[in-house]
Amino acid sequence: MFDDNYQFSVVDRFIKYAKIDTKSDEESEVTPSTPIQFDLAKLLVEELKELGLTDAEVDDKCYVMATLPSNTDKDVPVIGFVSHVDTSPAVSGTNVNPQIHKNYQGGDIEIGAGKVIDAANNPELKDMIGMDIITTDGTTLLGADDKAGIAEIMDALQYLKAHPEVKHGTIKIGYTPDEEIGRGANHFNVEKFGAKFAYTIDGSTLGEVETETFSADAVEINFIGINVHPGYAKDKMVNSLKVASHFINSLPKDGLAPEKTSGREGYVHPVSVNGNAEKTVVRMIIRDFIDAKLEEFENILDELCKATVAAYPGSSYEFKVIQQYRNMKNILDQHPEVENNALESLKRLGIKPIQSAIRGGTDGSRLSFMGLPTPNLFAGGHNFHAYTEYVAVQDMQASVKNIVTLVQVWEENA
Ligand SMILES: [Zn+2]
Q1: Hey, which end of the chain has fewer CB within 10 Å, N or C?
Q2: What is the pLDDT of residues 64-110, one digit of tens each?
Q3: What is the DSSP string of 128-187?
Q4: Residues belonging to the active site
Q5: CA 408 to chain centre
Q6: pTM of the model
Q7: How far is the CA of 178 from the centre of ligand 1 (A)?
Q8: What are 137-166's pLDDT values in tens digits?
Q9: Residue 83 C-alpha to ligand 1 middle, in angstroms?
Q10: Rounded CA gap, 397 and 392, in Å?
Q11: How far is the CA of 313 from the centre of ligand 1 (A)?
C-alpha cells in the first residue's frame, strides 16, 4: 500500500529541471549534441547521491547511470528506469517559466502570449477536472517530455529511501541525452547498465503501457535516364526527373500513406527527391507493425518502379532496402513478465491501462534489440514539442506511485 501521507517532491523537482535549458540539436554530430545537457545531468548525479545511490555518475557522452541496491533476500531480476534529459529542438526551451493552474474546472486554458490549450482539441482535459495543471507561459515548450519522467523516477527513489520496508531488487537508473534527435540509445552501454529489463518513463496519458512500435525500413531508388545536350536531344533524351515524378505520382493515393492511415495501418512515404536529367534519387520510408508487411510494401514499390521505367523506354532503376528498426513487441513477447508486471502495478493502483502501439520508434525499441527489453510507461505529459505542452500534478504523482508499486510487484513475483 502506498503511504497516503507521503509528501511528494515530484512537482518541485519537475519545475527545477524544466527551468534548465537542455535542448538537443540535430545539426550537431557530437554526443551530447549540446553541452548544456550536462547542466541537468550533473545536477541529477548530485541528487542521486543525496538519495543514497552512491555510484551515480555521468560519463563523457552525458549518460547518467546509478544503482539502488536490493534490500531483499530474493533473487529479483535487475530492473532499470530510463528517461531522457534533452528537450525537442522544435520549440525554444530557454527561460521556461512553468505556471500551475490549480483546480482546473474545465474549458480552455489561457497560458499567455496569446496561446490557448483548447478543450475541443485536448480531449484528455475532460478527465482532469479538479486537477492542478502545469503549463508554460506560452513562450517556450514545457519539457514534460521528459523531465516529468525524470522527476517521477527521482521522487520514487525518495519514497523508497523514506520507506525501507518496501522490498525491491536492484534498481538501475539511466538518463540519456539526445533522445529527441533519435540518438538516445546510440551510446547507451547496456552491459554497464546491468539491468535485465527496463522501462522508459516517457509516455503520455495516465495508464499508458506501450509495448509496440513500428517496424521500419528505408528504401532508396535511383532512376537513371539518358542525358543528352538539350539542343540535340530529340528522340534521345530520357529525363530521370520525369521518370521519378511518374513513379511518385503512381504511389497509392487512397491508403498506404501517412496522411491516409492511423492506428495499426502502415504506410510508404517519399521523404526526398534529388536529381537531374541523368539520375534522380527518391528516398522513402516504409512503416508497419508487422515485419512481413514491410516486404509486401517494398514489393509493391518495386512493381511500380518496373511499370514506371516501362513507360520511359531507355530508363532504368536501382532499388535498395535499408533496415532501420523493428517492432519491440518481437522481443517483449519473449519476456511477457515485463508487460504483465506493469499491468499488475496499474491494477493495484486502480489505473485503467492504455495499451497503444506507437506510430514511430522509441529509444526503448532500440534498447530492446540491444539486449535490454524496454517498454514505455506513461509520464503524464501532453502536447509534446509544443508551446501548449502540459502535465497534471496528480498524473505525475500517479507515476511515482506506479514506479514504487512496480518494483514491489517484481520483488513479490520473484
Ligand atoms: Zn520523450
Answers
A1: N
A2: 999 999 999 999 999 999 999 999 999 999 999 999 999 999 999 99
A3: -TT--EEE--SSS---HHHHHHHHHHHHHHHHHHH-TTS----EEEEEES-GGGT-TTTT
A4: 86, 179
A5: 26
A6: 0.90
A7: 10
A8: 999 999 999 999 999 999 999 999 999 999
A9: 7
A10: 9
A11: 49
